[in-house]
Amino acid sequence: MLRLVDGVRxxxxxxxxxxxLLDRPVDAAFLSSNEVAELARVSQPSVTRFAMALGFDGxxxxxxxLRDPGPSGLTRPAxxxxxxxxxxxxxxxxxxxxxxxxALDTAPRNELQHAIDGELDNLGRLADRLAEGGxxxxxxxxxxxxxxxxxxxxxxxxxxxxxxxxxxxxxxAKIHPDVRxxxxxxxxxxxxxxxxxxxxxxxxxxxVLPRYPKEALxxxxxxxxxxxxxxxxxxxxxxxxxxxxxxxxxxxxxARLVFDLHVAPMALAxxxxxxxxxxxxxxxxxxxxxxxxxxxxxxxxxx
Length: 303
Prior knowledge:
By secondary structure, the protein is an alpha/beta fold. Helix content is 49%, strand content 8%. The chain has helices at residues 2-5, 12-22, 33-40, 44-53, 59-67, 101-105, 111-129, 137-148, 162-172, 187-198, 214-225, 263-279, 281-297; strands spanning 153-157, 179-182, 203-208, 229-234, 247-250. The N and C termini lie far apart (48 Å). GO terms for molecular function: carbohydrate derivative binding; DNA binding; DNA-binding transcription factor activity.
């Protein structure tokens, strides 16, 4: 099941179904669609749509695939241990010495550990792309120069991307004099983009993460029409937001839990802040020292 869902974009309901099956690695291949629906507290048609999202023509085909013996299936000969990639939280090795670290290294891993493993993989791929001469190193540097040079800096992030836009904006304000976080949609959003442009903005950072809000894509069109250069931080180079970007920075979103994990995109956002600092080191240092002096005078932090 983990292999089937890996890399597939699922809705929250579909992820609940996947989690239900992952929690029952032995029974999953023998449950009816109605039983799965009842256990996951979803409708039976949702189970069918889940199977189709995985590339099957219906739930019976998915169940047959799960029943297939061998490396790609869930069933196993009697007496054999459950493969670690399919083991649940209760699938622990028995009879091993607690001090035997080799046994611990080979112990079955549960779905929560698999989710963390997936984030480690995402971070590893991001690190590879940011190596000297890597495809994303130049893009990050170019994005940093565009953003730090903008007299006003709008930062867009709607729905799931709003917390990341706010987090980025908090730190960016320490090195940039006019950061404007746009985390709410509606008709006022276009007004705020135009106001930022009137204040001298030449570039905008847009954080656009799945499920891609239409309002965010519309805001990119508005910013483009206003003459702003667009830096897009998203989950994939083929994200719909990348189509209008001047610079696209991408880091994979974890999709192994009910809701997305944004570990790699958050790391990339902080790397982008570093690139902004590197693009204007003298100005950045002066603003940081000014902030520290002000914070100390006002006793902002306890230590």
